[in-house]
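User: What would this chain look like folded?
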Amino acid sequence: MTTSEAQRTLVIPAVLVAALGGALIAAQGRFNGDLTTAGAGALVATWTSYVGTFLTTAIVIVLQGRTRRTAHVLAHEAQWWWYAVGLCGVPIVVMFALGIPVVGVAIASVCSVAGQTLAGLGLDARGVGVPAPLRLSGRRLAAATVAVAGLVVAVGSAPTTSLGKVVGLGVAMFVSGAILAGQQAGNGRVNLVTGDPVLPVLTSSGGGTVGISALVAVVWATGHLGTVQWPGPGQWWLYLGGPLGAAITGCAAWAIRHLGTFALTLGVVVGQMATAVLVDLATGVGGRWTTYLAVAMITGATVLVVLPRRLVAVAR
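Assistant: Here's the prediction, encoded as structure tokens.
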């Protein structure tokens, strides 16, 4: 089996891993949002999530007995941008912590799709995070159009009384999503260089932890942090955002080399939105038929971009 054939056989497993990562993103957003409203605030909830991700990844490396090997790679091969890409995930974690308590997981999730989608197309075309550049084909453009249309449908499902707030959150999440695509591509590149999907989780979460810690310190020093209340042991699940973050980044770092940033984003979004709808229903937020339509549209976009070309021809 050639390298190209091996890559193709892993496309479907990679889509499933990406969807799993998306499901974990929805769960992480719910936990971080609840931690925010429980008294921690969005900034401290984000900091808690990053610290938890870094510590969880470090523990995994220790349990796998790879501490010495990892330290060697970091000392002799790591470059500054391995850590810097971790900063790209900070905006979306903050926005989810702020937005999910307002609009629910489903709408908050889909509002980040457009930015990730468009940024993913550009990064794939330049070969960032993938073995070779992926040209901007008609199918990929069509999938992007459907995904962005799904964003519009989802935003339109918000109650009109909060439309202005939803639009504001949507713009912020568009930008945050585009930035997040940079982290996914960067981690994918680290995975390609090292052959280790855990290492980019460690470096990006480490860089993100340093960045968000500096931001918290500045806000605290200027007296704008406010009162922080930490939920007690009776609400332990609110602190699961960190461990989930480690799993999310690991899923993305492995899947991106087989899918590219664009297809990875769509796969993540399918799992993210489907789980988000279930979470919203389970927590009493509910949803409208337009939100479910948006989930179906983005699922269709994912199928369109990852379906083998020969099968598309047969379908026609």
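The chain is about 80% helix and 0% strand. If you want, I can go into more detail on any region.
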